[in-house]
Amino acid sequence: MFQVRIHGRGGQGVVTAAEMLSVAAFLEGKHAQAFPSFGSERMGAPVVAFCRIADKEIRLREPVQDPDCVILQDPTLLKVIDVFSGLSEKGFLLLNTNKTFDELHLRGVVEKLPPGHAVIVPATELALKHVKRPAPNAALLGAFAALTGLVHFESVKRAIAEAFPGKVGEANIAAAQEAYDLVMSQERAATV
Fold it and tell me: Residue 11's pLDDT band (boundaries 50, 70, 90)?
């Protein structure tokens, strides 16, 4: 079973990201579940959502304590909570920012992970460019597909289109595509 914990703030589409990821996995014949953990349900408050993906039925229902992947939609949460708590030493880290790991003082965290398992994607910038809203969730799902290979990008596109029909979906898919391409080009550059 692969477990994902997504951290962000209310209004950034954290819960929707977990739901779309579970739909993408389901479209590939996998078992999946997605659910949120709310504290204060207001715009801007910290929000955590979880997604589990497996080849067999998932019976667990509790929050993800030991994630295989952490997706951080809002880097300001680094000063508020321990977003890396329980992250597997073989895990993945996907961070929405235009700063470097060194600028965020995260080099120690990144070095504990296997090479290529931590990436930065300016997902909010991509969302503003394509969707005209600071909702980085779809872009981060495109990056997730490239980073982990757990779900195919085509499944992510279909899940986004189901969640956001029409032009909004097309814009979100464009943001996800650019994020996917960015991570894939980083991986190619790292192997050269």
Answer: confident
Distance, CA of 29 to CA of 55 (rounded, Å):
8
Which pTM was predicted? 0.93
Structure tokens at 159: 């899940």
Q: Is 51 left (phi over 0), alpha (psi -120 to 50) or beta?
A: beta
Q: Which residue segments constitute the domains of the chain, with CATH numbers given? A: 2-191 (3.40.920.10)
Q: What values do phi and psi take at 47, rounded to 5?
A: -135, 145
Nearest CA among 119, 134, 138 for reference residue 178: 138
- DSSP designation for 114: P
Q: Which helix (H) or strand (E) holds 60?
A: none
What angle, 0 to 180 degrees and rounded to 10, lies between the N-to-C axes of helices 166-191 and 153-163? 160
